[in-house]
């Protein structure tokens, strides 16, 4: 017998079907290979079982390995009747087996036994070939481990052989290794193969001029395989969770309601809090020798202590403050409320109240708020003292009305010097933006300082920090004519001024102001349709801005004038994010808004495994908050301090006007705690984008999203964010009708903006939104707004260029596959297939009315086949498609460089030469395409018309097809005559300079 063995490690399974009638399964795996059987242990009541068991099959003849098949059957064990039920199977051919050093864990989708069977889930296996099983522990597994016991000859009824069924299974295969493997020589490339890069796989490269940039994806040892072309590492993939929310347990996207009452926080986990409302005190005793009292209140629960603000010389203070303590963190059975007198040396004790935690009532909305009561103060020994305190104590959840304005124990303490508003949850509304359309027509009677020179004038238009200039006009007279239209961005309420400045250029970078015109934006007329006749008006030029603002209605007989047309155009939607990421597509004019079509609900649950951004008490920690953006409504959760696994459990709602929009959720580390008034930027952790059109109505999506961020050192996973999302629309007919309407408002198509205009206006819109939100309390900082709106996505990136190139190749991969198949047909590799193609082609040419039905039938069958591979979850950021997991360090450094650059001249010169090389190749490709197109045009101009006139079209089509599909016996190594004729046709490339 041969020493060669096949090793199989059964790792785990995910998302199995429930078969025991109780929502679970007791799964085990049975392996069949070369007339041998092994079986794993049974994992009781687990839909995501983990085995990590290994087996070795004896291989009788290594030459027969490519023809052998490994079958892994997953069964559910029923203890009551000692039977089993089928959960799915995986079928692998011997051609895909690799040496032990190249083996990695792959997750295979479970296959059905029949057409009508219902199967779901994945099975993780590691399969390899070895000639020395004793070294498996060291070479494949990293450390010795005891092998699982194989099954003996399975004679019991429980392990009886199941009938094998033929199925077209998806075959997963590791790319060719640099180590020679005699068992992977003959590979069937016609089958559908999904490849994942390993450490020994060949790296794919892109040649950019003189520098050949090679990038090899890092070889992850565990890879989750999906049926789509853009699979990525399991650690970066989306994971479905089944949390216990306020409305019940989420199972398969549906809420299984229990005895929990329905409330407005049904998409988040209920968090129980102890609420303490300190209202006021009266008749407090005097403590100071001066006869005054400076009281404040301390609330103590276990290790937590919160204090109110203190009042100076007040025996009847009123605080009206609420404190919230997380109930699961309180390790005490006693609540103490102490009134203290603030002193310079040591604070004096005034009185105390004690509450037994077991006797505190529970309040559940929509119950009315608990009424506060007066309590007599006690001494430390429990004796009654002078003075009373009005207080209310109860248990509640984050749905309580007092929660948003309370001091929460897991956010920040009163001992901190930071203003509390920076750490509470807030809702922001971004300003409504309008486009300002300005038509600078002409100027008359301009007065120059030097009358012996010609006029060389332009007009500068300014709103805030936005500055645009018209072209330079030279005139022999004192009149200038431009008739140029400019676009700027303005925000409601229109408090700013539109400033026009006519300037004369008297030298290089030396412009002299001739006069100014100031137009208040609140006086500009508003238009919401395609009114090409913009109302115009003559304005008198003033010497200064103050004079222009304070101008009177007096009319000078002789004055310099400027002819302008200005309107606020509300027919556009002012984009503050790229169109494919936009969350709002409504026009600026509110009267053009359409009614909402649905409701979007978002529950921000918690984050796990966050990276520390700062150090306190000798250990790393973070102070994180989340920001969600959809439409004009921005929301910010409270900041959870000193936690790498924060729990937010906050829920928000938006009206949806268009499903072709994107919800963006970002996580940030608050850097304002230690330096509240400093200029330290909040650090970005990561963000999640969810397109609403990918969501099923009414379904609750509970997933864990990896927070991926690209750093100058490479791609990093910063943690995971758990969300619950539900999108519900009002009417299916309205949704279908909405898909027939244009994506953007009408003005974007009637008077489209150029690409350069769109980028410029979007940048101005982001700056304006950041300025407005930065003036809120607490401010939403500029770096947060820029990160949420992808403000810098338009800048050059070699990584994005490569990613788009690979997207393009993936898009055309189907056409390339059809071309390869047709090439095999033309080369008669399979004579039967070639003859059938000949017959089908003749039939379609003779009966052209069958062409469209045949094409539609083929498309229908393709769609039916691809339906099984449809995405079950909303798409998430794909690292492989983004070319983020294999990017070159220099390309990353270039991407994170500022604009303009701050790098050394030799680095900039190298990158410029590389960019020239890339552009040169693109230029060559564009020129080749133009040459071929001109030859086709020349062919159609004279030769094609003559041939088509003399030859019937059907005969011509048959002749061309039969010529391309001729037998290899009639082919030559040199190009055929038609190709030579086509290449000799003239093109216009010789007319290029």
UniProtKB/TrEMBL annotation:
Domain C2, residue spans: 1-108, 255-375, 413-539, 581-705
Q: Where in the cell is it found?
A: Membrane
Q: Which residues lie in Polar residues bias regions?
A: 157-184, 193-210
UniProt-listed InterPro entries? C2_dom, C2_domain_sf, C2B_MCTP_PRT_plant, C2C_MCTP_PRT_plant, C2D_MCTP_PRT_plant, MCTP_C, QUIRKY-like
Give the record's keywords alphabetically: Calcium, Membrane, Repeat, Transmembrane, Transmembrane helix
Q: Name one Pfam family in it.
A: C2
| Cellular component aspect of the GO annotation | membrane
Q: What is its main location?
A: membrane
Q: Does the keyword Repeat apply?
A: yes
Give the function comment from the record: May function as a signaling molecule by regulating the trafficking of other regulators.
List the protein's name. C2 domain-containing protein
The organism's lineage? Eukaryota, Viridiplantae, Streptophyta, Embryophyta, Tracheophyta
